[in-house]
From TrEMBL:
Coiled coil location: none
Keywords recorded for this protein, A-Z: Signal
InterPro entries, sorted: DUF305_CopM-like, Ferritin-like
Signal peptide coordinates: 1-27
Protein name according to UniProt: DUF305 domain-containing protein
Species whose genome carries this gene: Cryobacterium mannosilyticum
Domain annotation DUF305: ranges: 54-203
Length: 206
């Protein structure tokens, strides 16, 4: 009687061990090791990954956008400006101000700052005047201009400014890694290329 009970106990034990082994094997064949974490915090998500080019893009685009906002503020404060130009300037400011906020947030997330924003030579092809930034003299000329002349000058300057931004954004698309930064760069290329076309059309009628 006792021997029979012992035999049954051994049978149950062996069956349990076989089941456990089968479960372990199943886990391994599904690519999940026992006790492995399903989401390791040591592996960054795609949107969190970034390269030096992404940092430089943000550092360069912040002052670039800030100057566009300053130029737009200057033109909308003047009298005698064509309504189409006023509408465009308002549109540019509305688009670029939130992007400035986002760019600054990315730099904080990436553990860096805006210290390099005055150096426009961080990306290949930049630092040679191709960024489209206005000089102090250019900004003074826009500030001093009035009426129709101010409107024309704003358009001419902003076309150059936008062309520089498009080049910077294209470099980010070519060299960057961060998914969100590249998405912004793609939007800049499209929206500012469209605005360049609008500005040229307006200039042709003035």
């Amino acid at each position: 009687m006792n021997g029979s009970k012992m035999l049954k106990s051994r049978t149950y034990l062996l069956t349990g061990l076989a089941l456990a082994a089968a479960l372990t094997l199943s886990a391994c064949t599904n690519g999940t090791a026992p006790n492995a974490s399903s989401g390791s915090s040591s592996v960054p998500s795609a949107s969190a990954a970034f390269a030096p080019a992404d940092v430089t893009f943000a550092q360069m685009m912040i002052p670039h956008h800030e100057q566009a906002v300053e130029m737009s503020d200057s033109i909308v404060a003047k009298d005698g400006i064509d309504k189409r130009i006023l509408d465009l300037a308002t549109q540019i400011k509305a688009a670029q101000q939130p992007e400035i906020t986002q760019l600054k947030a990315w730099l904080r997330d990436w553990g860096t700052d805006e210290a390099s924003t005055q150096g426009m030579d961080g990306m290949s092809g930049m630092g040679d005047g191709s960024d489209g930034m206005m000089s102090d003299g250019d900004m003074t000329a826009l500030t001093d201009a009035t009426g129709a002349d101010a409107g024309k000058l704003y358009l001419k300057q902003m076309i150059v400014h936008h062309e520089g931004a498009v080049r910077m954004a294209q470099l980010e698309l070519d060299e960057g890694q961060n998914v969100d930064a590249k998405a912004m760069a793609s939007n800049i290329v499209k929206s500012q290329t469209d605005e360049i076309g609008v500005m040229k059309d307006i200039l042709a009628t003035l």
